[in-house]
Design goal:
The protein is 59% helix and 5% strand. By secondary structure, the protein is mainly alpha-helical.
Length: 265
């Protein structure tokens, strides 16, 4: 059985499952893993070429990038990510102080806004947020969301490359897709689980959500925080997850984080 025939068979079976059992929609991912990377590359290219993204140059901001890549590497080195070697896990810093946000495309292209970095108070918070965003790629939530948003017929065209213009349009729209409650909870759980295996405070992301809660009328809250689910519930759920794992404490690295902030433009 050749590779193309195997892929076609898998896709047909996936489409049959999606069309015959609607409650599984989004649970059966008909994309091969390498398609996540291809879509992520399209999203990254579209986003970085747009007027809304000013990416800090990695050569001119070497200290910043060494720092943020070390945070990423700490997460990856837990060896808990199935797609650790499948995705590039490339990080880019977006110079925009008005947005407190980060996101990760399918295939592991990570974006962190300077507004978020300046808003956070410690390295464990940054690691927690990055872990949450990386989990969306690791768990392939974007291609699940595409299944729900665009349907199996369009995905067949995307997989087999019959409509490149549509691929770019859909890939660009991927960055705007919101994840459901289950996906956000799964990403929160991953953030706790992954940081638990490091020297970080395992509930670093909870600190970000707590700060957002207190200052929700003063900051530019990312849309995903205002819709899925309530930040207070997310904090409680993450702390419950942490407690169930044993409640191990960790480091915040607040002073190290403050030093890094001095390198931001």
């Amino acid at each position: 059985m050749n590779k193309r025939f195997s892929l076609i068979t898998a896709v047909i079976l996936g489409v049959f499952t999606l069309s015959s059992c609607s409650n599984w929609l989004g649970k059966v991912n008909i994309f091969p893993v390498e398609q996540d990377v291809a879509l992520g590359e399209q999203v990254a290219s579209s986003f970085e070429s747009g007027s809304a993204a000013v990416v800090l140059d990695s050569a001119k901001n070497a200290t910043l990038y060494r720092y943020i890549y070390s945070v990423r590497d700490t997460i990856l080195n837990t060896n808990l990510l199935v797609h650790k070697s499948d995705f590039p896990w490339r990080v880019r810093i977006i110079h925009n102080d008005t947005i407190q946000n980060a996101f990760c495309t399918p295939g592991g292209f990570i974006y962190v806004y300077t507004g978020l970095m300046k808003y956070l108070e410690s390295e464990d918070q940054l690691a927690g947020v990055m872990g949450h965003e990386m989990a969306h790629a690791e768990k392939r939530h974007s291609t699940d969301a595409m299944t729900r948003e665009f349907g199996a017929n369009l995905l067949l065209e995307l997989i087999f490359g019959t409509n490149k213009a549509q691929l770019l349009q859909v890939a660009t729209g991927l960055a705007q897709l919101s994840f459901g409650r289950d996906a956000e909870t799964e990403a929160d759980n991953c953030s706790v689980d992954w940081l638990y295996q490091t020297s970080y405070n395992p509930v670093g992301a909870a600190g970000f959500f707590e700060k957002i809660q207190k200052e929700k009328h003063q900051v530019n809250i990312p849309e995903f925080l205002s819709t899925h689910p309530d930040p207070g519930n997310r904090v409680a759920n993450m702390k419950k997850r942490w407690s169930e794992k044993g409640g191990k404490t960790g480091q915040t690295y607040a002073e190290r984080y403050k030093k890094m902030l001095t390198y931001l433009p």
